[in-house]
Amino acid sequence: MKESLSNWSLRGHLPYPKNDAGRDLSMAIIVSLVLGALVIGALFIGPLAWYPLVSVGVAVAMWEVLSRLRENNYSLPFVSMIVMGQAMIWLSWPFDVTGLMAAFVASVLVLMFGRLFHNGRHSAPQNYLRDMSVGVFVLLWIPLFASFAAMLSQVSTPWASGSAAIATFMLCVVASDVGGYAAGVMFGTHPMAPAVSPKKSWEGFGGSVLFGTITGALTVHFVLHDDWRIGIILGLGLVVCASLGDLVESQFKREFGIKDMSAILPGHGGLMDRIDGMLPAAMVTWLVINVLV
User: Coil, strand or helix: which one is 270?
Assistant: First the structure.
């Protein structure tokens, strides 16, 4: 009797999860710790380490996405696009947004004009609009957004450094992920967009908003030494963009009938599966810090 009452009490305080995480959680945690250690190390070193880290991440993410597109008969200049993505990252270091946009526009022009003559001067290009449009989308989705993450290392406010800006960004992202994961697994019953991502729930989104905005307020106040109300704006914008970024990648994978972009990160899938929400969130973080802080 005592045992049954004890079990009832335990269940009353710790509800059973409503959903399965669908991953090897222990392996996912180990990989997350390794990735976190790389990020923390880069924070201490500064742009000299942060830019190479972002650069490698962009190259791997573009390799994953372009590989999946090639497997589904999209014809894109594989190596050239990765090189163009690297140019966008690295030109943002000495020339900031001007260098980034110049590299992006040049990359789009190369893609637009190069696709015209993919089959030579005497053969009409096949699926030109489809392939060119998807190529521009990939350039925007990965290296353009990632360049804002790289440029966070150069953000300078009256009371904080670029490393503080990156720390604020990463802490908010982690808090959003943890809050969304915990709330989604434990309480998720109402799908946000079942046609795109059946497992992403409104309860999980609520957890992300709660954890993300609280962390945003705390980090902006204690790390950036600015008004905590700006942190609420930052946290909310970051959570919304991160959630929509997850849905964009979910739709990408759904159209090709795949679960993960690759299998290079045990417990996570591909690198793109790990950073899909971070990419647009980095742009929001850079914008809020530059405009409001």
Answer: coil
